[in-house]
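Journal club side-thread
Mid-discussion, someone asked how the predicted structure for our own chain would compare to the paper's figures. Pasting it here so we can look after the session.
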Amino acid sequence: MRKDVRGALCFLAVVLTGLMSGLMLGTGMDQYTHRLLNAGAWVTEHQVMDALFRRWLPPSWNLTTALLAVAAVFSRGRARFFFAVAAVIFLGSLIVTVVVEVPINRTVATWNVDALPENWAAVRDRWLHFHVARTVGGLLAFLSALRGLQKSTDRLAGTPEKAA
């Protein structure tokens, strides 16, 4: 693959990973502060936010994960290692999302704000707990991808590789 195309793919993988990680961090901060809302306000806010995210997050997650994998495949040396680590970690965050958070979101989407279950706060806190876990994963994936980009750039520029 041409160096300029490989470099562009790696760069795009890092940018998307950074955007997704930033979105996770911002959402986590938002949801942490929304713990202060009353039950009805929290449920309404979560339902509105999830309706938006449900539309565009799946393709964004999939594209980011795929680009990290492609960057790993087409990179060389230590860059390949860091992009592969980023892809695996990001995939782990995606699995947490699909296995834990999406089912919670689907449950919350069915709630009527006038007749909430007694355990609504426990459900909210469980969602937030797992969101923190996936956010940490997203941020670690971003840092690993960033390191991969640095190694890839060093390699393209002819800078000798050093140990990670």
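Post-session note: The two ends are 25 Å apart (CA to CA).
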